[in-house]
Design goal:
By secondary structure, the protein is mainly α. It contains 3 helices and no strands. Helix content is 35%, strand content 0%. It is extended and about 45 Å long. The termini are far apart.
Length: 78
């Protein structure tokens, strides 16, 4: 049987490490979407966060990216 302990970080099993990783601390949020989109994106719209949009052609990826850029501009955050 394969021993996963060599591949999995010990912090995955440490309750204190999990609490710290998911703690609701103040992030440098660039902007917030209203309503449920804010819950969906959460702290991903922070400085240093990463969000990727992918999907088939014609599904609104470009529209969503333009909306995101517009909201960033309106929040006056660089």
């Amino acid at each position: 049987m394969l021993d996963w302990s060599a591949y999995v970080s010990k912090s995955l099993f440490d309750p204190q490490a999990m609490r710290e990783a998911f703690a609701a601390d103040d992030h440098d949020v660039l902007f917030r979407y209203p309503g449920h989109l804010n819950r969906f994106f959460g702290p991903a719209m922070e400085r240093g966060g990463f969000v990727a949009f992918f999907g088939p052609t014609g599904r609104g990826k470009t529209y969503f990216l333009i909306d995101l850029a517009w909201r960033c501009m309106l929040s006056r955050r660089r």
